[in-house]
Specification:
This protein is of the alpha/beta class and 235 residues long. The chain has eight helices and eleven strands.
């Protein structure tokens, strides 16, 4: 196995499944079953989930919310999603821990790098919730930050599309998929795979990223087995 420790970024919107809001139990269980397979393969797994299925701070600020308050609401949304995933993992017998960027005991333990590493080394899945704990930072940035802090070998960004394209494939039928692309090309072509802060964190810390379709069951394991799925972004 090429990767010992990975950071998986999950989309909050994808958790909606076929619903228009909230958490679809079938999609949640699909995710939990795939994560269980990784644990069984001996891979150490850290996870960050977005909160867009419940509340997105940036869109909230466009609708009149104070940006700081809106982002804090978004952070709480990620905690709700993280607790839901933890519950689904528990039902499958997958040992896991939820850590929060903001002190929220007794809901979950407050994050520290040492604590996270200790749980990962024990083989427990660690779910990082609450974003970075600060407003104005996305969950993509939180994913990059946590991945760097835990010294992950790879960051996996699960999305609704199967990789990075020359344009948005949902809008442009002529868009062409990249099998791999450099961070420099991402900047030059202004491709929006993550926000610039997250992209820069990965680039400066030489952390490769695979963008892939997480909503197709089985893709997560296939990526980590080396199958040509998604797009590899690297230095």
């Amino acid at each position: 196995m090429k990767y010992k420790r990975i950071l998986l970024k999950l989309s909050g919107e994808s958790l909606m499944g076929k619903s228009k809001y909230g958490i679809d139990s079938d999609r949640l269980n699909d995710y939990a079953e795939q994560i269980k397979e990784l644990q069984a393969m001996g891979i150490q797994v850290g996870i960050v989930i977005g909160g867009g299925n419940i509340f997105r701070g940036l869109s909230g600020s466009l609708n009149g919310f104070d940006r700081v308050k809106g982002d804090q609401m978004g952070m709480l949304a990620t905690v709700i999603n993280s607790l839901a995933l933890s519950s689904a993992l528990n039902q499958l017998g997958v040992s896991n821990q939820v850590l929060t960027a903001i002190n929220m005991e007794p809901i979950a333990e407050h994050y520290s790098t040492n604590k996270a590493l200790a749980y990962l080394e024990k083989g427990e899945v660690v779910v990082f919730s609450g974003g970075t704990g600060c407003p104005f930072f996305t969950t993509d940035t939180a994913s990059s930050l946590r991945a760097v802090e835990i010294k992950a070998d790879l960051m996996l960004k699960g999305t609704r599309v199967d990789g990075v394209y020359t344009a948005d494939p949902e809008k442009d039928p002529q868009a062409v998929k990249y099998d791999e692309i450099s961070f420099e090309e991402i900047y030059d072509k202004n491709l929006k795979i993550m926000d610039l802060t997250a992209t820069t964190l990965c680039r400066e810390n030489n952390l490769p990223v695979v963008v892939f379709n997480m909503d197709k069951k089985g893709n997560l394991v296939k990526v980590l087995k080396g199958e040509n799925i998604g797009t590899l972004v690297h230095n």
